[in-house]
Specification:
Largest sheet: 6 strands, antiparallel
Strand content: 35-45%
Order of helices and strands: EEEEEEEEEEEE
CATH architecture: Sandwich
Radius of gyration: 18 Å
CATH topology: Immunoglobulin-like
Shape: flat
Number of domains: 1
Number of helices: 0
CATH superfamily: Immunoglobulins
Distance between the termini: 19 Å
Structural class: mainly beta
Helix content: under 10%
Number of strands: 12
CATH class: Mainly Beta
């Protein structure tokens, strides 16, 4: 697994860093402000459907844009750390929740391989769903040789990142 870019390493003068400020962007991709507050439940996986419950925990109605990112953990070429593959916009009243379903197809996992053919490769993937690219829930899945989706080792990994 290779990361793209030059990661920050404070002990290496040739890595990417600033001397007096953090290296992270001020706002992550997809960041937005709202008068409402939203809570994301855990990701459930059924074949190629990824479901997450979004709840408005605020005191006013609000519109939330849930974003789905993937990461190819074993690609034959260097892949992005997070790749936006879908989003859904939903408006919720205070206390209301909605289950959002994202569907991925093997074509959504395709990329240009080393031999310049375009296609998917079997292997382990991570899926992230959240309000922006930083504040997400995470789960693992595997794309099989038959280009079928399955949960990694029968266990979901749900962590906030």
């Amino acid at each position: 697994m290779k990361n793209t870019g030059r990661p920050r390493d404070p002990n290496n003068k040739y890595s990417s860093k600033y001397l007096d400020i953090p290296n992270d962007p001020l706002y992550p991709f997809g960041f937005g402000l709202s008068y409402a507050a939203f809570d994301y439940g855990e990701i459930s996986i059924d074949k190629n459907n990824f479901t997450i419950r979004v709840t408005n925990t605020g005191k006013v109605a609000g519109t939330e844009t849930a974003q789905l990112y993937i990461r190819d953990m074993v690609g034959s070429v260097t892949r992005p750390l997070k790749e936006l593959k879908g989003f859904q916009k939903t408006t919720l009243a205070p206390g209301e929740f909605k289950d959002l379903v994202f569907t991925l197809e093997p074509e959504d996992l395709a990329f240009y391989r080393k031999d310049m053919t375009f296609g998917s490769e079997p292997g382990k993937f991570k899926v992230f769903i959240g309000t922006n690219s930083r504040d997400t829930k995470e789960a693992d899945f595997v794309l099989t040789d038959k280009l079928e989706f399955r949960v990694q080792d029968g266990v979901l990994s749900n962590e906030v990142h």
